[in-house]
Amino acid sequence: MGLLSKQFDDGNIVLTSVEGVLNWARLCSLWQMSFGLACCAIEMMAASASHNDIMRFGVLPRPSPRQCDVMIVAGTVTLKMATRLKRLYEQMAEPRYVVSMGSCSNCGGPYWEHGYHVLKGVDRVVPVDVYIPGCPPRPEALLEGWMRLQEKVRDFTLVKQEGEHA
Amino acid sequence: MTESMEVLKEGIASGRLKTDELVLNMGPQHPSTHGVLRLELVLDGEIVVKVIPQMGYLHRCFEKHAENMTYPQVVPYTDRMDYLAGMNNNHGYVLAVERLMGIEVPEKVEYIRVIMAELQRIASHLVAIGTFGMDIGAFTPFLYCFRDREYILDIFERTCGARLLYNYMWVGGLSHDIYDGFLRDVADFIKKFRPTVVEVNNLLNYNKIFVERTANVGVLPRDVAVSYGCSGPMLRGSGVDWDLRRDDPYSIYDRFDWKVCVGDGSAGTLGDCWDRHMVRVWEMEESCKIIEQALESFPAEGDIASAIPKRIRPAKGEIYTRVENPRGELGYYLVADGSANPFRLKVRGPSFVNLSVIDEISRGHLIADLVAILGSIDIVLGEVDR
Amino acid sequence: MPKAMNEIFDYLNGLFPEAGLAFDESVPCIIVPAASIKEVALQARDDQELLLDTLMCLSGVDNGDETLGVVYHLDSMTLRHKLTLKVIVPASDPHVPSVDRVWRIAEWHEREAFDLVGMIFDGNSDFRRILLPEDWEGHPLRKDYQVPEFYNGMKVPY
Question: How many CB atoms lie within 10 A of CB B215?
């Protein structure tokens, strides 16, 4: 957590930046939207079940997009689903993140060539923060992807960046 | 209160008060639809009047891929149809090609295939039972079921390297031989697994709340089940004694002694959600029996591939092959035209067929019961939409 | 008594002498003219000698020679025999009478066959696309199908 300082004798006083404490709070309670589409959804379930227990990262699966910070797109996005996916993404509150889990949502996966009804990569409709390769990725891979996302959240800053529009 | 109810009832009966039907959309992203299924519900208050399933949100063009791939290349795509039962899907497809070409596989291959298929059946049923409990509102059994499922996946992983989508059964054989200690691991698993069934029974299946939620709900009469072509636990839950492993035997299932589990309506009516659910629970025990017998008579020596031509090109012809998937009858209609690619491969998915009956059995129930009904059908959308 | 496919053919041909049924040994299957498929299906289900109570599978096939085929795989749970029926229609006029009143599951199978291969089932009670979106153009499992470049503004090819 950013700067931990022990300048004071009272153990309850900690000095840190506002960003540091906000980011720390956010990255430890990233609520995910359970967006299980296909095979990867089973591995996503396995990640939250007994052996892997993703909930120790503060992950709570929520069914409503309004309560979520992260959308894990787990599975093949078809053209019929893509419009719905975009709408659900737009319903999420900012700041919001997207994890693309598995080859299908990264790039179309095994369906890239003849899949006339498959969207070749979810990044064609929504911006993606973390890509997890694999068909399907193991639960451990999802955990690794989750930690990468936490790193990204840790670097979030409230200060306007150079070249950024208001 | 009672007086106003009387007035209300009288008003409705005489037609002076009208109720409007409400159309509610459930899905395609709903936690209890087991994937991307969308149900259009026509409701009268909280009572379901009509259910119109809308599918295709996971239509991944399997049949188009099959026409553009060579015969062995289709196997990985069969995994991805019913992703909870990859082994069984592989089995059905390779059986279709082998029967079309007249290939006999070595005995050891048959044994491994049966053991794998039955382990997969247990794993698939564990997911079905766990998620059904979760739909009803019980989270803990889900953790128990997934714990034991992981043991099966570990065995699969040590055998062929994959946890979920195996590409393990190939035309004429298998991709890998079993590892040293495979038989011991499977036997250990069976020993470890039996107490889990008792645990899940105590936690969930005979739990008063669970029984109240599922008994007498979504009753599927026998003749309706047959007319809709239902199969698997769905059909057996309605009291029809029918299992393809026994009634249209394939592989070496006829060598083993086991019984077909049929619903008995002991909690409520024959063919309700509880019966369908319990057929799955009982079937896991029967699968254990099959695996134990297969382990006993497992051939010590043998090849894992038969001598087949390097390029698989069946002669012109067609075949319909069906196997018993955890969800029911999985059929492959394969048309060959003599080239290296299938001319047409149509899949009859058990989930697709079983789902079609949902409108019939959920009319007149509450929305909350619809969730129970949907969970007891146990669909996998990858196979409904393919 | 379970019957072999050619026995069933002889039996059905005796019942429908004018329908013009034909037996294809190579598959084997019975080729039924489109106009009489409904009567034959109803007979196959209800006749005490046949009792083909299950429609295992209904497949649409593009034969690649300007004809489309519908294949019905039937099974009898009680008598334990199977039957394959085939209807072949020209691709220019692919009308087939629906059998969804005979086996209820046929409704969805026929919708799927229409969706992917494009034959039209007259009399199906809920006839529309089942897998692809309503505004999709063409039938993907036709041999001459061209994948569209864009769908609703989304690029389709890789």
Answer: 17
